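Appendix B, Record 12. Input sequence as logged:
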Amino acid sequence: MRSRINGGWFVPVDPALSTEKASLFWLYQFLPLIIPLEPAPARLGASHRTVPWSVFSAARRYLDTEGCYLIWTERGVTHRFWLDEEPVAGRQYSAALVPDDLGSVRAWAFLRFCHALSGRADPGPYRAMTPRTELLYRQSLAAMDAKAAGASEWDIGQTLFGYQRSRDEWSDNAARGLVRRTLARGRRTLAGGYRRFLTWQAGGSRRRSRP
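Logged structural output:
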């Protein structure tokens, strides 16, 4: 089953798994880390390679009306794929990369997949989120959870940022401003800012240097 959100965004849910273990997927047109696959041409050139069936056999599959989503993990690196229908044994498949705005990121995801197939070292993500940015968003979502559970700004300041002073000193303290900014960031994220995470690696013109 799935839950549908704003205009085509969806999350297939496996009811047999806990929330912590469930794998989240999004439409491949919006998440550049998903590699679209398609049946390979009947006549292949000598240099044309297809996706080994062992990948399909080992991958977890999620079927939806939009297609079939696969997740394959090799040496600790997760690779995601999409097909318009469930793969059929005996049929050959190849990547279908499109030169769109997310093409460079998707091509990098495909390069990582090629490295995994050949046993070479993983080149790493195209563009990684900095630890500080990740921390800011984690704090924002934690603050929103606390607020929804009935916690006051003072409670959040104590729990999330270690504020130890009395409630009387709270109104004039910088910690109050920090909590309010954190909550404001959380509200923006829940209002639609979360979409930045999906195309995070496509942002900016610089990618990480290759090792």
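The beta strands are 2-5, 9-12, 34-39, 60-64, 67-74, 77-83, 93-95.
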